[in-house]
Amino acid sequence: MKISKSVLPLILALLAVSFSVNAWQRAPSTRAVSPRQLVINLYAQHKKRSPFFQTRSRALLDKFFDKTLAGLLWRDAHSAGDEVGALDGDPLFNAQDMEIKNFLVGPETVGAQAAEVPVTFENFGVKHKITFQLVAQSNGWRISNVLYDEGASLVDILRNDQSRKPQKKSKR
């Protein structure tokens, strides 16, 4: 079969569009990830390679957290050096020592631009509830804060620690 030169560009364009649509359908969209699934993904990632405490790349932080919280976590990891920073335990369980049982990521509560996801578990027999607050962004849902059951929040812990650290004096 002979294809005319005027039809060939049209066929190539259709093939390119078809390939692009198929690739787009196969690619996981961060927008399609629900707030609850993002929290589940964060706990799964934390087991493999935690986004907390690392200083090599901010990519994992930006994958899960909004710009403000990612910036605070990044700054804490860098400013701590070999010392303990504001986070002196695991921020996903708010503890230094853990014996986690009955772990459950609860149902999400979703509004137009914000969502909350509760996580419950027992640590050494004590029940705990942590609430993840998320915001809708152009690149999908991102965690903007973590509320702990004793009243503290991850953002407050990080901000309060930054305000207590002595500022480096600039050279004149």
What's the arrangement of secondary structure elements?
Blueprint: H1 8-26, H2 35-49, H3 59-64, H4 67-80, E1 100-105, E2 109-110, E3 114-123, E4 126-137, E5 140-147, H5 154-164
Antiparallel strand pairs: 1-3, 2-3, 3-4, 4-5
Features:
alpha+beta, disordered C terminus, five-stranded antiparallel sheet, 172 residues, 5 helices, globular, Nuclear Transport Factor 2, Chain: A
Q: What does it look like?
A:
Strand 4 and strand 5 form a beta hairpin. It is built from five helices and five strands. It has 172 residues and is an alpha+beta fold. 38% of the residues lie in helices and 22% in strands. The longest helix is centred in the N-terminal third of the chain and has 19 residues, at 8-26. Strands 1, 2, 3, 4 and 5 form a five-stranded antiparallel sheet that branches. The protein has a single domain (31-163), classed as Nuclear Transport Factor 2, Chain: A, CATH 3.10.450. Helix 4 (67-80) crosses helix 5 (154-164). It has helices at residues 8-26, 35-49, 59-64, 67-80, 154-164; strands spanning 100-105, 109-110, 114-123, 126-137, 140-147. Residues 13-30 and 166-172 have low confidence and may be disordered.
Concise structural overview:
By secondary structure, the protein is α+β, with helices and mostly antiparallel strands. 38% of the residues lie in helices and 22% in strands. Helix 4 (67-80) packs across helix 5.
